[in-house]
Design goal:
five-stranded mixed sheet, 2 domains, elongated, Rossmann fold, binds adenosine monophosphate, BirA Bifunctional Protein, domain 2, alpha+beta, about 40% helix
């Protein structure tokens, strides 16, 4: 029955996967704290108008849009940036800068489902508003590197560029913004021939086409050498030269932190979203050909939403893809194994006592399951074993008369009678 299947593009997360996702989320939240980003929670449903306003055509055409019962045109958010920009343009308008904000949650895009691409997916999103300085760009890159390392991912590579390089060349040729956007979108999809043809038909000179061709081919892990070459290629295009210098400054700051961050510069790198104005980047793991996260600078977005002109730089990390990369790298979760307890009353009439003790243990922060199936002790113990429970607490009449219970260490297969008042101490201090 199709009604009993998840809707195409949607997934269930069973306990193991849910645990992994929550682990990444907790690391993302910790990274936000370590870098001074305050968490905000915005609605999943926003007005269609707000979400459609600045999303590129790519995203706009894939929104889950509908009318609510009050006849309002609304949509499920396809990204966080519009909601954050709304806040900065309204409620947080007069907030002192810099303003560092963090959000994490689910997003919805009617994409074609495939490896690492879903219709419901999760992102951690960081926005730094109010600074146009390269140290702000460097911070966003460093923060991304910190998160990838803190979840245990290895060998991540950053791909970096600057939209000002291509745009500087195109705008020098007086190509309209709309055409520039289309050229950039084709470049993002790696349809370079189509992009060049479009630029040519819009009036770009031969010199411009050749320059763009050279930029597209220019990529390298020796970032400063690549940047030098890019500077040579764009000589005469003032805004493009400024963009290369800005990228160089950011790269210097990132590389001088002492932390090894693997970066490749791609001079012809374009990211789909139209609102980027400066440095742009994506981060990859070798095991996954799709980006784990991406971001960049967008200095004009807030004013497009009606706010004060506010320079801004941000990043969104795809939690689902980080999960995928961790699974492929067989990353082991660095979480402390928690001790778990199963409480088994030997007789029906002892269940009240079982519930009472379970409550005392939980109040002492110890996770407890109570036997609720009315099974015999041997059966219940088999089940506890299967669940990899650490201890069983067996409540019997004889021990209870002495205010005691039997505690059994299920791993060591040893057991002892312990006074009820000493249960917590015995478990917490590994006395059995
Ligand atoms: P974007 O908001 O398009 O810049 O994407 C930022 C990050 O979100 C990407 O690098 C992906 O990791 C993730 N992402 C975007 N779209 C999807 C999707 N349909 N499914 C899963 N992750 C996605």
């Amino acid at each position: 029955m199709s009604a009993f299947r998840t809707v195409r593009g949607m997934r269930d997360f069973l306990p193991e996967e849910a645990k992994l996702m929550k682990f990444i989320e907790s690391k993302a939240r910790r990274t936000a704290q370590l870098y001074g980003y305050k968490e905000i929670i915005t609605p999943v449903v926003e007005s269609y108008e707000l979400l459609a306003a600045k999303a590129g055509e790519e995203i706009r055409s894939r929104m889950y849009a509908f009318k609510d019962l009050g006849d309002r045109k609304v949509a499920l958010r396809p990204e966080f940036t519009a909601s954050v920009a709304r806040l900065i343009a309204t409620t947080l308008r007069n907030e002192p800068k810099p303003l560092r904000l963090f959000c994490v949650g689910s997003l919805y895009r009617y994409d074609e489902p495939q490896q690492g691409r879903f219709r419901e997916f999760w992102q951690s999103n960081y926005e730094l508003m109010g600074s146009n300085k390269p140290e702000a760009d460097a911070e966003i890159v460093m923060l991304t590197d910190s998160l990838m390392k803190s979840v245990g991912l290895k060998n991540c590579v950053f791909k970096m560029g600057h939209v000002g390089v291509l745009r500087g060349v195109l705008s020098h040729e007086k190509l309209e913004d709309k055409v520039q956007n289309e050229v950039m979108q084709l470049m993002d999809k790696k349809q370079y021939d189509d992009a060049l043809r479009l630029a040519e038909s819009a009036g770009a000179s031969e010199k411009c086409i050749v320059t763009i061709q050279k930029l597209v081919e220019l990529k390298g892990g020796d970032v400063f050498e690549t940047v030098e070459k890019a500077k040579e290629y764009v000589r005469g295009y003032k805004r493009a030269v400024d963009a290369v210098m800005n990228l160089c400054e950011i790269l210097k700051l990132v590389s001088e932190t002492g932390e090894k961050i693997d970066i490749t510069v791609e001079a012809g790198f374009a990211r789909g979203l139209e609102y980027y104005t400066g440095m742009i980047f994506e981060v990859y793991a070798p095991e996954t050909p799709i980006a784990l996260g991406g971001g960049g600078r967008y200095d004009r977005l807030i004013e497009l939403f009606g706010g004060e002109p506010t320079p801004a730089v941000g990043v969104a990390h795809g939690i689902d893809r980080i999960m995928l990369a961790m699974q492929r790298q067989k990353t082991t979760l660095r979480t402390e194994e928690e001790k778990t307890i199963m409480i088994i009353p030997i007789k029906e009439k002892l269940k009240r006592e079982a519930l009472k003790i379970s409550r005392t243990l939980r109040d002492a922060d110890i996770p407890v399951e109570v036997e609720v199936m009315g099974r015999k002790v041997t059966k219940a113990l088999e089940d506890a074993d299967r669940r990899e429970t650490s201890y069983a607490i067996i409540i019997g009449e004889k021990e209870l008369k002495e205010d005691a219970v039997v505690i059994r260490n299920l791993k060591k297969r040893e057991q002892r009678v312990v006074k009820i008042e000493n249960i917590i101490e015995t478990i917490k201090n590994n006395k059995l």
